[in-house]
Specification:
The complex is a heterodimer of chains A (204) and B (467).
Chain A (H helix, E strand, L loop, with lengths): L1 H20 L11 H57 L2 E2 L12 H13 L4 E7 L8 H19 L7 E7 L10 H7 L1 E8 L8
Parallel strand pairs in A: 2-3
Antiparallel strand pairs in A: 1-4, 2-4
Chain B lengths: L9 E3 L2 H7 L24 E3 L6 E4 L8 H13 L4 E3 L5 H4 L19 H5 L2 H6 L4 E8 L2 E8 L4 E8 L9 H17 L8 E6 L2 E6 L6 E2 L7 E6 L5 E8 L2 E8 L6 E2 L7 E7 L5 E8 L2 E8 L4 E5 L8 E6 L5 E6 L6 E6 L6 E2 L11 E6 L5 E8 L2 E8 L5 E3 L6 E6 L5 E6 L6 E6 L5 E3 L7 E5 L12
Parallel strand pairs in B: 3-4, 3-5
Antiparallel strand pairs in B: 1-2, 5-6, 6-7, 8-9, 8-31, 9-10, 11-12, 12-13, 13-14, 15-16, 16-17, 17-18, 19-20, 20-21, 21-22, 23-24, 24-25, 25-26, 27-28, 28-29, 29-30
Helix pairs in contact in B: 2-6
The chains are: A alpha+beta (204), B mainly beta (467).
């Protein structure tokens, strides 16, 4: 459609161009119609060349735009997947020796509920982690409580329980290596990992 | 029975009664650091004074081939914390009259004040403070170990063994066994020289000799390992590995042989394995969405998974069997914070074990029941850091053992008087050993990050080979 209108437009332009460059009709020397007709023929030839070139340019432009549109939409799709993935992987954090969901982290879990609802084949694993201060082995039980707390939140908001696995790594896989409250606060967390159905994620 | 007060270290109160009563008096645990004990009425028993121990001298010998044997034995005896080791100033000046017993001259232990006595200047060693003297000699390819009773002026026991060559992986353990023989011959107690300690470092399980030698990697995969535990026969051990989404328990033989995954159901997180004393059952913690609870599985027939605790709103973990196998001490969060509980091995009769003040006492974790059954060691949060405590099983009195730095995950030696534990007292976390009776503390290895130690039982002969 757009292509057609471009051709029509360029046709009009050519006609207008031809009209403008047209000399006023000869008044005196009718013996020399040939000169006129030669010029006219020459002009017509030139016009058709210009027209063809314009058409080619228009076609090129249209093709370029089409390619760009495909690329743009692919990029947009990728961005959606990436954005969803990032949203899904957002960590939640816990207080020391606690496994209850902080009020400010509930909205992070709400996002995950929406993503899981928009992608019914998506399956995830939640891993609970602890800081290094507690007992090594007790922290496995604590991390398990943290993972379970997040799962219970998701399930209670409508996600099927079998789509979510839980595991605990205790203090065995710290994110921050420091030995201060800043590092500990980062390490007391739940991680969310896609274990199935994560190929073409839809935005909720 | 040795009741005479031959040395200050062994005094007897009410000596005329002691011989009679010692046999029936319950052997209470005596602690070097215990200053709270108050004499109530008459107390009869052997009073052990820390720091005053029987003197022992390891005699220098002519056979240079035995130098390393002598050095290892002397160190083992020192690490037993049961002797005052007497070092001879410039061994040569003393050696003169010390004709080490050889195949030709030594007598059987029953010989009493026999010919061996003639070769040793007992008066000299007695003057130096020695109660016992240990001589080493070679008779062909046989190593002859003679344990002299200096006061009696005779050879008390003689051991002959064909030691593996120095380069043999079993050499050190064979020498450690000789050192343990000396403890039996002199004091009538079992030693701990022929033992090893499992531990975790950088996600891998390792084993190391009790004297800090021969560190070896034993976990056999790239998966992160945790919580190694010995089987009571010292021939196998168990540990946990993190697998995709769950924790897998394995039982692995010491020495050659393939490890076996412990048959479990589903994709649960299983951890903290503990063998029953008969070696047939493995108790462990299992974390599910219900929480963490203690289970037991028959590893002899790989069957009969049994759930021992039903936590619901609390976690139950870290089981440890009493030596007779009737009870299990464990950690439970039922009072809010984790504390030490006890139950029958079938899961019945669950009750609080280590008393605590509600709202005051910190978290208590990682119990380990002593091989003599009298104590349970554990660690407890004190003011934001962890300290090792010992629970007296009979009186249920709890005593703090450590105070310097952070100290955690205690594990008993088979003599029930030494504990290995993790401490950062030197600036980084590593393994240390404390003797509860003398209070002596030594590092086991100089390596940052070593943790979760498990002390072996006395190791059988065949387990000495390289794992």
């Amino acid at each position: 459609m757009k292509r057609l209108s471009l051709i029509v437009l360029s046709g009009i332009a050519v006609v207008a161009l031809a009209a403008c460059s047209h000399n006023p009709p000869p008044v005196t020397t009718p013996q020399q119609p040939n000169a006129d007709s030669v010029a006219a023929a020459e002009r017509a030839r030139q016009d058709s060349i210009d027209r063809a070139a314009a058409e080619a340019r228009a076609r090129e432009e249209a093709e370029r735009q089409r390619q760009q549109r495909i690329a743009d939409s692919l990029a947009a799709m990728g961005k959606t997947g990436e954005a969803v993935r990032t949203m899904l992987a957002t960590l939640i954090h816990f207080d020391y020796d606690k496994a209850n969901i902080r009020p400010e982290d509930a909205s992070i879990l709400d996002q995950k509920v929406a993503i899981l609802q928009a992608n019914p084949n998506l399956r995830i694993r939640i891993s609970g982690h602890c800081d290094e201060r507690g007992s090594d082995e007790y922290n496995l039980a604590l991390g398990n409580r943290r993972a379970t707390a997040a799962k219970q939140y998701l399930v209670s908001h409508g996600i099927e329980a079998q789509r979510i696995e839980t595991v605990s790594y205790g203090e065995e896989r710290p994110l921050a290596q420091g030995h201060d409250e800043a590092a500990w606060a980062q390490n007391r967390r739940d991680e969310f990992e896609i274990i199935g159905g994560g190929d073409a994620l839809k935005q909720p | 029975m040795q009741t005479g007060s031959r040395r200050d270290g062994w005094t007897v109160r009410g000596a005329h009664l002691a011989a009679l009563l010692l046999t029936v008096y319950p052997s209470t645990r005596l602690f070097a650091q215990d200053t709270s004990a108050v004499d109530r009425g008459v107390r009869i028993g052997i009073i052990y004074r820390p720091g005053v121990r029987p003197g022992l001298v390891v005699l220098p010998g002519a056979a240079a081939a035995l130098d390393s044997v002598r050095a290892i034995i002397a160190r083992d005896l020192d690490l037993s914390d049961r002797f005052e080791l007497i070092t001879l100033p410039g061994g040569d000046s003393i050696r003169m009259s010390a004709a080490p017993p050889s195949a030709g001259t030594s007598r059987a232990p029953t010989g009493g004040r026999g010919g061996a006595a003639a070769g040793l200047n007992y008066q000299l060693y007695q003057a130096l403070g020695a109660d016992f003297a240990v001589g080493l000699a070679l008779a062909g390819d046989t190593t002859v170990l003679a344990v002299h009773d200096v006061a009696a002026g005779s050879v008390r026991r003689e051991f002959r063994s064909r030691l593996p060559p120095l380069k043999d992986p079993g050499f050190r353990m064979a020498v450690h066994r000789l050192a343990d023989h000396i403890l039996e011959a002199t004091l009538g107690v079992g030693g701990i020289a022929a033992t090893r300690i499992l531990f975790v470092l950088d996600g891998k399980a390792y084993v190391i000799d009790e004297d800090g030698a021969d560190k070896q990697l034993v976990s056999s995969s790239d998966h992160q390992a945790m919580s190694p535990a010995w089987a009571p026969d010292g021939r196998r051990f168990s540990y946990m590995e993190f697998w995709a989404g769950h924790g897998q328990l394995f039982v692995q033989p010491v020495g050659p042989g393939k490890r076996q995954p412990v048959a479990t159901t589903g994709q649960a997180l299983d951890f903290t394995p503990a063998f029953s004393p008969d070696g047939k059952t493995l108790a462990f913690s299992r974390a599910t969405e219900e929480g963490t609870d203690i289970y037991a599985v028959n590893i002899k027939d790989n069957c009969c998974l049994q759930r021992l605790t039903v936590g619901r709103f609390s976690d139950n973990l870290s089981p440890t069997y009493s030596p007779e196998g009737q009870r299990i001490a464990f950690v439970s969060t039922r009072p809010g914070l984790p504390q030490i509980y006890v139950m029958a091995a079938d899961g019945t009769d669950q009750q609080l074990f280590a008393p605590f003040d509600y709202g005051v006492t910190g978290s208590s974790n990682a119990p380990d029941w002593s091989p003599d059954g009298q104590s349970v060691a554990f660690h407890r949060d004190v003011g934001g850091t962890l300290q090792v405590f010992v629970l007296d099983v009979r009186t249920r009195a709890v005593r703090q053992l450590t105070s310097l730095g952070r100290n955690e995950d205690p594990t008993w030696a088979p003599d029930s008087r030494h504990l290995a534990f993790v401490s950062d007292r030197s600036g980084y976390r590593q393994l240390w050993i404390i003797d509860l009776e003398t209070g002596r503390i030594r590092p086991l290895l100089q390596q940052s990050g070593a943790r979760l130690p498990a002390w072996s039982p006395r190791l059988p002969e065949t387990a000495s080979s390289t794992p």
